[in-house]
Amino acid sequence: AEKALELFGKMESSGFEPNSVSLTVAISACSRLLCLERGKEIHRKYAKKGFESDEYVNSALVDMYGKCECLEMAREVFQN
Question: What is the pTM of this model?
Fold first, then answer.
């Protein structure tokens, strides 16, 4: 999970625009590592780029927020 986040960061730095698969993997890594702040950062950054309606990304977000005990955010993502 740490390697996945490291690679995702490098990809972002090099100008890579992620797709739903790479976002789902990065958010799932945050979930496994309980990296709430990094997960929120990813969520904020890419929600505005059309990924807020992607069911795989949203599922990963709900899982991450739930595991990090942010139940209100998990509910908000689920309901939207």
Answer: 0.90
